[in-house]
Amino acid sequence: MAQYPSSFDKDDLLKCARGELFGPGNAQLPEPPMLMMDRITDVSADGGAHGKGHIVAEFDINPDLWFFGCHFPGNPIMPGCLGLDGLWQLTGFNLGWRGWLGRGYALGVGEVKLTGMVRPDRKMLTYKVDFTKAIQTRRLTMGVADGIVEADGEVIYVVKDMKVALSES
């Protein structure tokens, strides 16, 4: 953890996507257009609501984003699954940031509530992930977290019990 900063710009996120940040075979973010954030503003292993770690990121919204043209023609809305994926991406990033080894993958989510939409007139999404568990044993590396997505300061997604693991195989 001490070897990594607590915030990352877009260039840093692209390095992570190429496997250059945490090293080959370790946690990676997807490349655009599936990269669902533009910057990480804060990350810790002991902060957040439960003292088990947190991560906060932002995603700039503009009408030219790829999903608005196809979901849905004449009624553009960002697919809710992309916001959920952004939360999963950040959960895995936090595990790599801790120095834990392995490739990340989503294991599931306990509960998802979508109470608002991301339309092209929104300006920015803010993702907030708070870990409830961060487990590293000989056989298991996993984070369990709750998350929210805000659109221009309004909470529009609430997620409970997201699970992301790292595997060295």
From TrEMBL:
GO terms for cellular component: cytoplasm. One of its GO terms (biological process) is fatty acid biosynthetic process. It is an enzyme of class 4 (lyase). It comes from the Bacteria. Its EC number is 4.2.1.59. It catalyses: a (3R)-hydroxyacyl-[ACP] = a (2E)-enoyl-[ACP] + H2O. Pathway: Lipid metabolism; fatty acid biosynthesis. GO terms for molecular function: (3R)-hydroxyacyl-[acyl-carrier-protein] dehydratase activity; isomerase activity. Its main location: cytoplasm. This is 3-hydroxyacyl-[acyl-carrier-protein] dehydratase FabA.
